[in-house]
Specification:
- With 294 residues, this protein is of the alpha/beta class.
- The chain has two domains: 86 residues; 205 residues, Rossmann fold (3-Layer(aba) Sandwich), CATH 3.40.50.
- The protein has nine helices and seven strands.
- The chain has a seven-stranded mixed sheet, sandwiched between helices.
- Strand 4, helix 6 and strand 5 form a beta-alpha-beta unit.
- The longest helix has 85 residues.
- The chain is elongated and about 130 Å long.
């Protein structure tokens, strides 16, 4: 009798274990089905989203192509009318370009000035060597200019450059500065300037504007020489705010046709701060009523 009860208990336990295992397997199978279904839904949603993003991307590409085509048309139009618009606006004006950095080129700006009728008599670059002379070089320059104090060296050189631009040309002084690598001159400094274009900006932050640009501006102003401060759109460290504090008109995008138009109009009397950077008060000078009606 005890043996039969023992087998009965084992049998009942086995039945319940079998039921439990069956239920567990069933749940797992159902869970796998649910997971697979959820995965299929997720994949489908991702595919739909990907298709939507592809459509948006294609739409944006088409929009970019249309804008690019329109921009090319506008650029060609501007290039075609630009020479006629600026022609003879600066006829007979003698301009000297002073570059306080040799990191950027201003070829298109010079060409625009010439197209406007200006005579770009000289392009003078003030070398960084002015800031980094050795003791022997300093001694030689001080002796040449008769300077007693080292602190007066750079101001004396900048003053010499300024008076040269104003018409007090000393060929020996200029030849000496060129020989020492302080300045590079392309053109003829014998012809005094009617207007000075000061080209600045730098690829790094430094105290060069305080040492060179500001003192040079002050010397040029003492000599009543009109000047405008310019730079390209690509400079990493802008000098425009510094020029503005010195009460200069400025153009911060002189590497573009719009900037070159602004420069010519500034020299022609439309003073202000123009360009595409935060320092600009407007993109370019307003045209007068007569020009607007053309």
């Amino acid at each position: 009798m005890l043996i039969n009860i023992k087998y009965l208990v084992i049998t009942v336990i086995s039945i319940f274990l079998a039921l439990g295992i069956g239920i567990l397997i069933g749940i797992q199978i159902d869970s796998q089905d649910i997971i697979l279904e959820q995965q299929e839904i997720t994949v489908q949603r991702m595919e739909n989203k990907f298709d939507e993003l592809n459509r948006i991307n294609l739409d944006l590409q088409n929009e970019v192509k249309q804008l690019s085509a329109a921009n090319n048309i506008n650029e060609n139009y501007i290039k075609n009318i630009f020479p006629d618009y600026i022609k003879n606006k600066l006829s007979g004006v003698h301009i000297i370009i002073l570059e306080t950095a040799d990191e950027y080129t201003y070829t298109s700006m010079r060409q625009a000035l010439k197209t406007a009728g200006a005579q770009v008599t000289s392009v003078t670059i003030i070398s960084d060597k002015l800031l980094y002379m050795n003791d022997e070089e300093i001694s030689n320059i001080m002796e040449y200019f008769g300077i007693d104090e080292k602190d007066n060296l750079i101001p004396v050189i900048l003053k010499r450059i300024a008076v040269t631009i104003a018409g007090n040309y000393n060929p020996d002084d200029i030849a000496f500065l060129i020989e020492k690598g302080i300045i590079y001159v392309n053109g003829d400094l014998q012809q005094p300037a009617d207007y000075v274009v000061l080209a600045g900006g730098s690829s790094e932050k430094n105290n060069k504007p305080e040492i060179i640009d500001i003192p040079l501006i002050k010397e040029l102003k003492k000599l009543s020489l009109p000047l405008v401060g310019v730079e390209t759109t690509t400079v990493e460290t802008s000098y425009i705010e510094i020029y503005k504090k010195q009460k200069l008109s400025t153009v911060d995008n002189v590497d573009t046709i719009i900037g070159q138009t602004s420069l010519i109009l500034v020299i022609n009397g439309k003073e202000g701060n123009y360009g595409v950077k935060k320092s600009a008060q407007a993109l370019m000078p307003y045209l007068n009523e007569e020009e607007n009606n053309r």
